[in-house]
Specification:
Blueprint (H helix, E strand, L loop, with lengths): L5 H8 L16 H5 L11 H4 L10 E20 L13 E2 L5 E10 L3 E10 L2 E18 L4 H17 L4 E26 L4 E27 L4 E4 L3 E23 L2 E8 L5 E6 L3 H9 L11 E3 L4 E9 L5 E11 L14 E11 L4 E11 L16 E11 L4 E12 L2 E5 L3 E19 L1
């Protein structure tokens, strides 16, 4: 029982909910949902994607508000041989080879994920402000817990009864876990044109992290081979909240080679971030945590590193004709530089984007794009509570200029993940599956 919450909490604490890296949400604008290759695009959402390029907007004020609604499934199907068949109140599904498996569902539904970008351009200067949820982004709920919870209770029942020479007849339990994570980000940037075609930017990003975890394993019973039910009085209750603050510089450059080609790059330095726990766990959980270092982050007053990795983006935008813009981008996340992971767990993440935007008329533009995300991680980095899978995403949408000052944006974005099965010592296996869909609308205002 002592390991029941270990992987669960560590995994939930390091989960990015949507597009991007393990911890980084890159879906910050409706234009991104329409076409995720925004690294060299010129637009007000460049406050996030290409701050140096914002200097090439007209003088005056530029404002954008984005409203997104992401929905995600995080399901796993666990198989621990015949063990789940011994859950006498809720047996698992029997497979063709005689083993038993069970599907565990995790759901993330976010009604509103907002972001805001503001820029003031004057002559060669651009002063910018942005706000968004740069990591986490919602609540992930596992109503029936996960396979590792049930497996450990079942194994505990087997070991406890057989050690007392009592025939094992089964077990039962209730478990649940809800994790909530928001990394609110605000950034200030100053950018300047060095020449008519070259611009640079320097910014500072502030991250305020707030996480909360509510979990319980209770109503545990063991059943003997003769049918006698033995209640287990012990229950484990986790009630922990964490908050922290971090800062990171951001630098950027944009070079307009000519009217047909624009090149840009941005480097976000690592955000060194520690969260401090405010916990009201029950005594059983705290007693376990004091004896197990892996539980230490969830004791009251504990501090834990949850750095956001540094990120390099480079992009190109080509306009073969005035009404058409073609985009390419590349992202590298320097995950191995963070303190919560090490190089034996994972390597840096690579991401590739491509897209196009076309002006149907002076008032209507359409766009679509593609993103490929490639993780390089060890088998031990997969958990049935939180897992990252190689994926490809596509998005499409429309922008409608309703006046010279106002443009409306709408988009749909979907990520398709490659299922992964992890097998441990040919005894247990878990298959991981994710689905992600985002709808979004927004408005641009210039004056």
């Amino acid at each position: 029982m002592k390991r029941l919450f270990t992987c669960a909490m560590l995994a939930l604490a390091s989960a990015s909910m949507f597009a991007g890296d393990y911890l980084t949400n890159t879906n910050q604008s409706i234009q991104f949902l329409r076409n995720p290759a925004r690294d060299a695009a010129i637009g007000i959402d460049g406050v996030y994607y290409n701050p140096a390029g914002v200097t090439f907007l007209n003088d005056g004020w530029h404002l954008q508000f984005n409203w997104q609604s992401p929905h995600q499934k995080r399901d796993s199907r666990a198989n621990y041989g015949p063990l789940f068949g011994a859950n006498y109140l809720n047996p698992g599904t029997q497979e063709a080879n005689g083993t038993f498996s069970r599907k565990y569902k995790g759901r993330v539904d976010v009604p509103i994920q907002p972001s805001l970008f503001l820029a003031y351009n004057k002559d060669k200067w651009s002063f910018q402000f942005g706000f968004g949820i740069l990591g986490g982004g919602g609540t992930c709920e596992f109503e029936d817990g996960v396979g590792s919870f049930e497996a450990l209770v079942g194994q505990m029942a087997v070991q406890t009864l057989t050690s007392q020479n009592i025939p094992f007849g089964g077990y039962s339990m209730n478990s649940s876990l809800t994790g909530k994570s928001y990394y609110f980000g605000a950034f200030l940037t100053a950018a300047r044109k060095l020449t008519d075609n070259l611009s640079v930017s320097l910014g500072l990003r502030t991250i305020y992290a707030t996480n909360s975890y509510d979990g319980a394993i209770d109503n545990i019973t063991f059943r003997t081979g003769t049918g006698t039910i033995i209640p287990v009085p012990q229950s484990y209750v986790l009630d922990c909240k964490q908050t922290g603050l971090g800062l990171a510089p951001i630098i950027g450059v944009d070079y307009r080679v000519n009217r047909y080609l624009n090149l840009a790059a941005k480097y976000e330095m690592r955000t060194r971030l520690s969260v401090k726990s405010d916990a009201s766990n029950n005594a059983a959980f705290n007693d376990m945590a004091t004896r197990q270092p892996s539980f230490a982050p969830y004791l009251d007053g504990a501090e834990t590193r949850v750095d956001l990795p540094g990120m390099l983006t480079v992009g190109a935008q080509v306009s073969p004709i005035e009404s058409l813009r073609l985009n390419l981008g590349y992202h590298m996340y320097f995950d191995t530089d963070t303190k919560q992971w090490n190089k034996s767990q994972l390597k840096n993440t690579n991401e590739f984007t491509a897209g196009a935007e076309y002006d149907i008329t002076d008032r209507i533009e359409v766009s679509a794009g593609y993103q490929k995300t490639i993780y390089d991680q060890s088998e031990a980095n997969y958990s049935d509570l939180s897992f990252n899978l190689n994926s490809y995403s596509f998005g499409f949408g429309v922008g409608v200029r309703v006046s010279d000052m106002v443009k409306l944006n709408a988009a749909y974005f979907q990520t398709n993940y490659k299922d992964h099965t992890r097998t441990v010592e040919n005894v247990s296996s878990t298959t991981y599956h994710r689905e992600n869909r985002v709808f979004g609308v927004g408005v641009d205002v210039s004056f």
